[in-house]
Amino acid sequence: MAPERHGGTEEGFRERHFTAQDGLRLFFREYGRERDGRFAVLCLPGFARNGKDYHDLARRLSTRYRVLCPDYRGVGRSQYAPDWRAYSPQANLNDLRHLLAVAGVHRVVAIGMSYGGILAAGLAVTLPGAVCGVVLNDIGPDVAPGSLRRVLDHIGRDHRPASWEVAIDYMKRTFPHLPAGTEERWRRIADHTFREVDGHLRVDWDIALAKPLPGLAREHGDLWPLFRALSRIPALAVRGELSEFLSPQTFQRMAAEMHGLDTLTVPGVGHAPDLAEPPAGNRVEAFLDGI
Fold first, then answer.
1. Which of 261, 263, 251 is nearest to 139 (CA)?
2. Interhelix angle 183-191/164-174, nearest 10 degrees
C-alpha cells in the first residue's frame, strides 16, 4: 500500500502514514526529496522514542538526501497494538522493511540510536542488497545491566507529571547526561517524551512496550556475531563520553572486532548523543559523503 501524504513543509518535513502488514497504521516523517543515484537515510530512534529526536539532523541532511524518520508501533503518532506480543524486534524489522518498500527506497543508510542501532544492524543483515551503510549511536553488542534496568523502569511506568516543569525536572533527574545544555533544550526533550491528553501529560508511548523486554536478552543471546557482520559495509560507531549504556571497553572491542569501523566519542554527553552536535553532525555528513 502506498504511504499517505499529509501536512505541509513549514518545519522542513512531510507527515506520512502507511499500513503495516498486520494492519497497524504507522507514522513517519519525510525530509528532503529523492535524488537520482543517491541513497536515502533512515533514522531509527531509541526504544520508546520517536522520530522527533532526529529533527535537527534530518533537516541538516535533507539538503542532499531523502530522510525518513519513523515512529515505531506503539510510539508517538503510530498506532498502539492491541496485544503486547506484537511488540518485538522482529515486528519492528518487518515494519521497517515494509516502510522502505512502500516509500520506494532501494538503497539506504540506517542511522540507529540505542535500540535503533540494533534494528539498523538487523536490517543490514536481512537486507544486504539495500543497506549500504550504518551509523550506530551509543549502542553495542553488550549493554550495562544497571542502565538497562533503569530504562525498563522508565518505559514501563505510566508517568503523569503535573506540569511541563515537573516533566522537565523528571528528565533532568533520570537522564542527567542527555544532550541538553539549556532550559530550552530540556523543554524540547520533555516535549519529545510526553504528550498532552485532555489537558494532562502522559508518556508518548504504550507502556505495554516494556512487557516483552525482560525475555529478549535470553531469546536473542550473543549479539556480537550480528555486529561483526557489519564489517562488510561502511559503519560508524558513536559513543557519548559519559555514557553508562555503552562502556569504553565494549566500544574498544567493537573497534577491534568490526573491521573497518569508524569511531567517534562525543565529549560531555551521555546516552545518547543526538548527532546534531557539531563534532557528531560533521562526522555523520563526512561518513555519508564517503559512501
1. 251
2. 100
Ordered DSSP codes for the chain: -PPEEES--TTSEEEEEEE-TTS-EEEEEEES---TTPPEEEEE--TT--GGGGHHHHHHHTTTS-EEEEPPTTBTTSPPPSSGGG-SHHHHHHHHHHHHHHTT--SEEEEEETHHHHHHHHHHHH-TTTEEEEEEES--S---HHHHHHHHHHHHS----SSHHHHHHHHHHH-TTSS--SHHHHHHHHHTTEEEETTEEEESB-GGGGTTHHHHHHHH---HHHHHGGGGS-EEEEEETT-SSS-HHHHHHHHHHSTT-EEEEETT--S---S-SHHHHHHHHHHHHT-
CB 244 within 8 A of CB 144: yes
Residue of 249, 219, 16 whose CA lies nearest to 6: 16
Could you list the mean pLDDT of each consecutive 10-residue stretch along the chain, which spans 291 residues? 51 95 97 89 97 96 96 98 95 97 96 97 96 97 81 91 97 91 93 94 96 69 93 97 94 96 95 90 96 95
The pLDDT of residue 7 is: 47
List phi, psi (to 5°) of 113: -95, 125
Phi-psi domain of 274 (left: phi exceeds 0; alpha: psi -120 through 50; beta: other): alpha
Q: What residue spans define the domains of the chain?
A: 4-147+215-289
Fold of 4-147+215-289: Rossmann fold (3.40.50)
Greatest extent of the chain over all pairs of C-alpha atoms, in Å: 52
